[in-house]
Amino acid sequence: MKVLGIMGSPRIGSNTDLLLDEALKGAERQGAEVEKIIVDKLNISPCREYYGCLKDGNCVIRDDMDDVYPKLLDADVIIVASPMFFCGLTSQLKALIDRCQALWARRHILKQGSMDATSKGAFIAVGATRGVKLFDGAKLVVKYFFQAVGVEYVDELLVRGVDKKGEIKEHPSALSEAFELGKRLAGNEPR
Do residues 187 and 154 touch, judged by C-beta distance below 8 A? Predict the structure, then answer.
């Protein structure tokens, strides 16, 4: 089983990063092969709406997304992790998601591959505020992203009221929840 973690925070060692690492450790404990993508370290241009993907399912922009696409398609589990920036995902992560228009075009326009979800996905998010709707917009984006690339949204870990770098270490229950999330996701055979 292949588990792909997508770290959307620009801050290495951030609360988001630490939670994702725990989730990946949990998946490894179940015997999964894990990989972590740090989006901020990649060169990913935003979608420019050239619509080349509507012709053959491939984006015409050449950058690090060329390496990301096969990883998304090969994963049995995808975990997206992001801090909340104005109740949304980071711009780095959003650029990666927007560029998956090419994968959406393959499935929905060109009818390549199965229309059923073939992988499982989860969302880990951390926000400084405690607002009731803090994660609503970001969850919706992640759900649509998963739907576009053939992933079923099956789990989440949403942590409110944590902001300072490494502050999540003061919340051991959140770290153990992340570990258990990874174990759950990797506990079943690939779909």
Answer: no
Alpha-carbon radius of gyration of the chain: 16
Q: What amino acid occupies position 50?
A: Y
**Rounded-to-integer distance, Cα 75 and Cα 77, Å:** 5
Strands (E), 141-181: 151-160
Provide the pLDDT for residue 188: 61
**Helix or strand or coil: residue 11?**
coil
The type of residue at 40 is D
Rounded to whole angstroms, the Cα distance separating 35 from 57 reads 25
**Alpha carbons 76 and 98: distance in angstroms, whole number:** 21
User: Running along the chain, 191 residues long, what does each successive block of 10 average in pLDDT?
Assistant: 97 96 98 98 96 94 97 96 95 97 92 81 94 94 94 96 91 95 82 40
> Any idea what DSSP says for residue 85?
B
Q: Where are the domains of the chain?
A: 2-186
Dihedral angle computed from the Cα positions of residues 44, 48, 54 and 55, in that order, rounded to the nearest 10 degrees: -90
CATH architecture, domain defined by 2-186: 3-Layer(aba) Sandwich (3.40)
